[in-house]
Specification:
six-stranded mixed β-sheet; about 375 residues; 9 helices; alpha+beta; Creatine Amidinohydrolase
């Protein structure tokens, strides 16, 4: 798997006339070599030339955390009295066009440019995201496992098996996090719980507000599930529960959201411009009078990161492709009143859209 990814990225580098690729802390490292570096002031850098075996430049004290894969990459340790920037510069000897990862610390980039002022530096993302955004069958299986896990939690939420009334948002968030781990994830990425008027804030931070009878509770949660290869794949799901009998106004608004999300999922076919998926749902929501209250893009790619390309947003005219996996999560947020969001992860296949989440889309009430 890793050898194939290295070979593919080197082919892309040659087609983009890139001599070397520099990848530091962030999701690119585990994707290409199965190592997740700690974001330290000590430099970790994977140097990939357009041919030959890559080299991982790593602090000596982090060496024990690396899974050795000698047929895929070499390891160059540096001690506390050594200069890792000089090691990277030496590895780049002869390189002119160099692409660097977005998550590289600015201080490292500046220091490298001081040593190599004549290199032509560009972003690595156009190359790495081209690979990462097209999921293999194995990656799709792993994303499905993660989606199945959060579906189980959402099912319990909808059926009243996760207590809401009388609990604080924070307590419910902690319970969701506990269940995310219990269902096989290794890490909780987020567990948004927003009750009542707080649901009008899309990224509300769960607090001490008590959840009461007869109000909306929006829950958006996900985590990362790692495999034996050291690579983790993410989940992300949003469902809403009304604690009691919802007012007709709310029921009708939720129906608009359901229709919008359903149409957007149907639109997620190979070759469709990403922005078209956003437009389809936004038109339905706007026609119902809620256009000003849909305040974010429709979705984001998901894989080794919870948010990655492709982004389903107006202005992204790039056609989505078979192998893309992304969220479709329209929302309506009425300030100081309430908010709703409905989110599934959807894979684009040759035969059409494949929702990875299948838990009930109806508004749960109890």
């Amino acid at each position: 798997m890793f050898l194939e990814r290295i070979s593919k990225v080197q082919n892309l580098m040659r087609s983009h006339n890139i001599d070397a690729l520099l990848l530091s802390t962030g999701a690119d490292l585990p994707y290409f070599i199965g190592y997740e570096a700690m974001p330290l002031e000590r430099l970790t850098m994977l140097v990939i030339r357009d041919e030959g075996q890559p080299m991982l430049v790593i602090p000596q004290l982090e060496r024990a955390r690396v899974i050795e894969r000698p047929t895929i990459f070499d390891i160059c340790e540096w001690g506390e009295t050594e200069d890792p920037i000089e090691i990277v510069a030496t590895a780049l000897t002869g390189s002119v066009r160099v692409a660097i990862g977005d998550t590289t610390w600015t201080r490292f980039t500046i220091e490298l440019l001081k040593r190599m002022p004549n290199i032509d530096l560009s972003r690595a993302n156009p190359i790495t995201s081209q690979l990462r955004s097209i999921k293999s069958a194995e990656e799709l299986d792993r994303l499905q496992l993660a989606a199945n896990a959060v579906d189980k939690i959402a099912h319990r939420l909808q059926n009243g098996q996760i207590e809401l009334i009388g609990k604080t948002e924070k307590q419910v968030s902690e319970e969701l996090g506990r269940q995310i781990i219990e269902e096989g994830h290794n890490k909780v990425n987020f567990a948004i719980v927003a009750a009542g008027e707080n649901a009008a804030s899309p990224h509300h931070e769960a607090g001490d507000r008590l959840i009461q009878k007869s109000e909306i509770v929006l829950c958006d949660f996900g985590g990362t599930m790692y495999g034996d290869d050291g690579v983790g794949y993410c989940s992300d799901l949003t469902r809403c529960v009304w604690t009691g009998k919802p007012p007709q106004e709310f029921v009708e608004m939720y129906g608009v959201l359901q229709e919008a999300q359903s149409k957007q999922v149907q639109e997620a076919t190979h070759g469709t411009p990403a922005q078209q998926i956003d437009r389809v749902g936004r038109q339905i929501i706007s026609a119902a009078g809620y256009g000003d209250f849909f305040v974010h893009r429709t979705g984001h790619g998901i894989g080794v990161e919870a948010h990655e390309e492709p982004y389903i947003v107006e202005g992204n005219a790039n056609p989505i492709q078979s192998g893309n996996v992304f969220s479709i999560e329209p929302g309506i947020y009425i300030p100081d009143k309430w908010g709703i969001r409905l989110e599934d992860i959807v894979a684009v296949t040759k035969s059409g859209p494949l929702p990875l989440n299948t838990v009930n889309h109806d508004l749960a009430t109890y």
